[in-house]
Amino acid sequence: MSDVAFAVDLGGTNVRGAIVTRDGEIQHYRTARTAVRGGVYAIIDQIVGLAEDAFDEHGERPETGVGVVAPGPLEPKAGIVRFAPNLPGWENVPLKRLLEERLNIPVVLGNDGNCAALGESMFGAGRNVDNLIYLALGTGLGAGIIHQGQLIEGIAGLGGEVGHISVDGNGPRCTCGAVGCMEAYIGGWAIARHGELAAHSERSAMIREIAGEGRITAEVVADAALEGDRAAIDIFARGGRALAVGIGGLVNVFNPELIVIGGGLARAGDLIMEPFRSSLPNYCMLPAYQHVAIVPSALETNTGLYGAAANVFYQQPNEQTGM
Ligand code: ADP
Ligand code: MG
Ligand code: ZN
Question: How far is the CA of 85 from the centre of ligand 3 (A)?
Fold first, then answer.
């Protein structure tokens, strides 16, 4: 029996599935526009369809396991999706049980940030690195922490929620209900929100001009910043510094070797990374700072699939290699 996992990525607007080998090769890739209107069972049918199709082409079933990555809060051990922002109607869905009943293969469910951290450490920028922090600068601020080879999950799988570390007790309100979270400065939604405030308070004519009749997004704010707009540059600089405050604390706690940065907002590049890198030494101790390298994600659009597969292999280490 070959040592492969079937990976499923439920983030985004498409369901994606593929067989992934322990060496990190993606095979028999399948995708379909997520049947969000059909409700829970329509999407379960889609996953099973993609899987059976890929198994047929592969010639055998991936007995090692099926890994599923989903965004939003979930209970990894019980395999329950509590809520998924991109899947309307999904509330407390026992996804692990439902898929195991249909596929007869063990299913492991994982949160996107935590799985991506495992994916980077197994297949990506953090190969052979046992201590890393993964950050997904996206619509929100996703993350995962690997410490001494172990994923930080906590009692209920909620560990590693780095984006909701508060960095200012008097800061802006976050979508999670708390105050001053890093995400409320450097999530894509927050950059857009701060851009709107700057545009409406007349601090930035450029943001308004670039947006035109359209929505003010993080891309619009980035474009304004690249044109030299002061307010837009400051929004990203404040975001980069907020990130440094929170990550500086984690650098002290975990003494990581690597910080891996992914996500769409990371395309803003130095608008975020320059203030982040230059202010990080202000928020952690020098010896810990000296050990840490900051690198881009190596998995990009396949982060979800690699993460789902890495979660399967992480739960079932290979006896020969221990990996
Ligand atoms: P999600 O977190 O929803 O899975 P992504 O990782 O793709 O999504 O990130 C989406 C976020 O990245 C959005 O807020 C979007 O506005 C922002 N974004 C995408 N491209 C750029 C860019 N070139 N510059 C700045 N922000 C960008
Ligand atoms: Mg995310
Ligand atoms: Zn929050």
Answer: 15
Q: Is 219 in the pocket of ligand 1 (CB under 6 A)?
A: yes
Handedness of CA 172, 240, 256, 5 (dihedral sign): positive
60 CB burial (10 A radius; 0-12, 13-18, 19+): exposed
Predicted local confidence at residue 318, as pLDDT: 75
CATH number for 269:
3.30.420.40
Please give the distance, rounded to the nearest whole angstrom, from the Cα atom of residue 244 to the centre of ligand 3: 16
Cα-to-centroid distance, 178 and ligand 3 (Å):
5
Q: Of all helices (H) and strands (E), which one includes residue 146?
A: strand 141-147
Nearest bound ligand to CA 264? 1
For the stretch 75-93, pLDDT in tens is: 999 999 999 989 999 999 9
What is the C-alpha separation between 125 and 258, in angstroms, rounded?
A: 9
| 215 touches ligand 1 (CB under 6 Å) | no
Nearest CA to ligand 1 atom 7: 264
Show Cβ contacts of residue 196 under 8 Å, excluding neighbours closer than 6 positions. Answer: 216
Q: Is residue 323 part of a domain?
A: no
70 in a structural domain: yes
Q: What pTM was estimated for this model as a whole?
A: 0.95
Residues, Cβ < 5 Å to ion ligand 2: 112, 138, 142
> How many distinct structural domains can be found in the chain?
2
Q: How far is the CA of 219 from the centre of ligand 3 (A)?
A: 22
Structure tokens at 213: 């009749």
321 within a domain of the structure (yes/no): no
State whether 102 and 132 are in the same domain. no
The answer to the question of residue 120 being in a domain is no
Residue 32: which domain range? 4-114+301-315
- N- to C-terminal Cα distance for the chain? 18
Inter-residue contact 118 to 314 (CB < 8 Å): yes
CA distance 109 to 308: 8
Average pLDDT value for residue range 196-204: 93
Q: Do 159 and 131 belong together in one domain?
A: yes
- Please work out whether the CB of residue 210 comes within 6 Å of at least one atom of ligand 1: no
